Amino acid sequence: METDFLKKLFSIAIPVAIQGLFYALLNILDQIMVAQKGEAAVVAVSLASKNFSILNFTLMGLTGGLAIISAQLIGKGNEKNIAKIQGLTLFSGGILVLLFMMLSLFFPTACMSLFTADPAVIALGATYHRAIALGYLPVLFTMVYSTILRNAKIVQLPMYIGMGTVGLNAFLNYLLIFGNFGAPALGVFGSGLATTLAQYIECLVLLSVVFGKKLIGSYSLKQLLTFFKTDKEILLFWKLTLPLLIEEMSFILADTVDNSIYGFMGTKQTIAVTIMNPVQGLIIGFFGGFATAASVMIGHLLGKNEKQHAYQTAQHILRLGAILSLIVGVVYLFFNSFYLKLYSLDAFSYRLTTTLMLMMVIFIPIKITNMIITTGVLSAGGETKFVLYQSIFGAWGFAIPLGLLSAFVFHLPIYWVFVAISFEEIIRVALCLWKMKKRTWLNTLVE
């Protein structure tokens, strides 16, 4: 591979990957701290976080449209038109944030009941819901402004602020979960409160730097509100974003069903999945940098109408991502026993989780390839409808039916249920590679 290509790739991928790595490490550290309060507390925090995950994925759908258009506008040299798309994203995201905030504040018990029937877990999870609810708003602003900065290849600023936020969040967890240094010992509620405080500080610091240095995205309110005047780019935004929103909602519903399957298999099984998820998130979060780099690099090239170069770039990033993710997964297996010892697991839970981790590592390269090709390659060329169709087909045609059958008809162990649910990744990667080779996704979308 060319040195120039690798330099461009890693200049974007590594900062984003490091930031994703730190967030995933925070989730692991958070779980380890909460685990000191008992197994029910671990499960409660994990399941209560699903509401935020649903919001997060929905906002990702919105910012996905922003990312596609802004990358091509920057490649075209037409940055001024980003303002109205950014304003529309903030306005639409604000409506979603308000809805989810009300759910967490006023209906936390109902939200928890979707995932578990354990009354102790429901009660603890409800307190966590209320603690994190007010933190949804700063997440929207951080996500939108970070998206714009990354598309302009200003990737180190969000990384440094994100790393600082992770350190602050970990320290606040230490204070508020256990009551250290004279702080109140709030347990599960303290964990949620620490997250909310850290999110506000992250948002305020990021916005202060963006507007203080007048970086891209520091548009006035008047500029942001120009989205009320409908034009080609506003229509393009919804054309690209609506399939992404539906795809994210479909994914969320499917993930909710998946977690319900795991949850109703029993607390031991749920603990195994709960312990696996941060590690899987750690690896996927790291390689999310490759997907972001693919989206930015390919978007810029398509904005310049350099289609052959864009196709070659996609091929190189996909190969590199698959190979490196396989290596990372295998290396992790050597450290698995050390990770599991951080939890107070009995012998049965330890064996269950160990086998589940092995299955997770087997599927990691396929999951990474799917992530890069859908969010980084096909979406960059505007093929968001195809991304929607293959996602729905995989989740509802394979993952959920196979998950239900394996868990409640054949009564298979949790690790085989995970394999059954993950089988859809193989179907999807085959469809996506076929689509990529057709080259119909190589589209210049902006003028």
TrEMBL record:
<feature type="transmembrane region" description="Helical">
    <location>
        <begin position="127"/>
        <end position="145"/>
    </location>
</feature>
<dbReference type="GO" id="GO:0005886">
    <property type="term" value="C:plasma membrane"/>
</dbReference>
<feature type="transmembrane region" description="Helical">
    <location>
        <begin position="274"/>
        <end position="296"/>
    </location>
</feature>
<keyword id="KW-1003">Cell membrane</keyword>
<comment type="function">
    <text>Multidrug efflux pump.</text>
</comment>
<keyword id="KW-0813">Transport</keyword>
<keyword id="KW-1133">Transmembrane helix</keyword>
<protein>
    <recommendedName>
        <fullName>Probable multidrug resistance protein NorM</fullName>
    </recommendedName>
</protein>
<keyword id="KW-0812">Transmembrane</keyword>
<keyword id="KW-0472">Membrane</keyword>
<comment type="similarity">
    <text>Belongs to the multi antimicrobial extrusion (MATE) (TC 2.A.66.1) family.</text>
</comment>
<feature type="transmembrane region" description="Helical">
    <location>
        <begin position="317"/>
        <end position="335"/>
    </location>
</feature>
<keyword id="KW-0050">Antiport</keyword>
<dbReference type="GO" id="GO:0015297">
    <property type="term" value="F:antiporter activity"/>
</dbReference>
<feature type="transmembrane region" description="Helical">
    <location>
        <begin position="197"/>
        <end position="216"/>
    </location>
</feature>
<feature type="transmembrane region" description="Helical">
    <location>
        <begin position="87"/>
        <end position="107"/>
    </location>
</feature>
<feature type="transmembrane region" description="Helical">
    <location>
        <begin position="54"/>
        <end position="75"/>
    </location>
</feature>
<keyword id="KW-0406">Ion transport</keyword>
<dbReference type="InterPro" id="IPR002528">
    <property type="entry name" value="MATE_fam"/>
</dbReference>
<feature type="transmembrane region" description="Helical">
    <location>
        <begin position="414"/>
        <end position="434"/>
    </location>
</feature>
<dbReference type="Pfam" id="PF01554">
    <property type="entry name" value="MatE"/>
</dbReference>
<feature type="transmembrane region" description="Helical">
    <location>
        <begin position="157"/>
        <end position="177"/>
    </location>
</feature>
<dbReference type="InterPro" id="IPR050222">
    <property type="entry name" value="MATE_MdtK"/>
</dbReference>
<dbReference type="GO" id="GO:0006811">
    <property type="term" value="P:monoatomic ion transport"/>
</dbReference>
<dbReference type="GO" id="GO:0042910">
    <property type="term" value="F:xenobiotic transmembrane transporter activity"/>
</dbReference>
<dbReference type="InterPro" id="IPR048279">
    <property type="entry name" value="MdtK-like"/>
</dbReference>
<feature type="transmembrane region" description="Helical">
    <location>
        <begin position="386"/>
        <end position="408"/>
    </location>
</feature>
<feature type="transmembrane region" description="Helical">
    <location>
        <begin position="12"/>
        <end position="34"/>
    </location>
</feature>
